[in-house]
Amino acid sequence: MNRLLNLLLPVFLLGALAACDQQPSREQQILAKLPLQAAYEHNIGRMASLLAMDHPQVPEEQIKQVLRKHLTVEDQRNDLFKLYSTANFSDAEFETIVEATQNPEKAKALGDTEQGKRLSEKLTGLMRASAQDKAVQALAAQRMQQVEDDLQALP
């Protein structure tokens, strides 16, 4: 038994060292490097402004609360995980997107390059494909109907 432990100990230590040396997953990178909460709040604000035109009797802050109830930050996170997955973007492409997100000057300069144009077209195409997906459309329609129902029920 002691001999077995002596043989397994180095294997476990190597495994532990290998685990420490692993790159963070793409999901971890998205959480760490992209301003998810700020983007979520920005989107909620834009939608609330639009809905305020159809519901002038409801304060915009209350509209935002209803939106947050049905359109969660977790939903947006999952959408971004899918969009920026390794299946869609290489590590280099993802790093370029992160840099452009964090630095408006780099984003502008990138937009003037062939690489930037290709990356922008790729991103736009993926977003369009997602928006045209019937399941995505059905889920979005369901959520927006829930938002409308809640807003209509308010005094």
TrEMBL record:
Alphabetical keyword list: Signal
Highest taxon in the source lineage: Bacteria
Signal peptide: 1-18
Keyword flag Signal: yes
Stated name of the protein: DUF2059 domain-containing protein
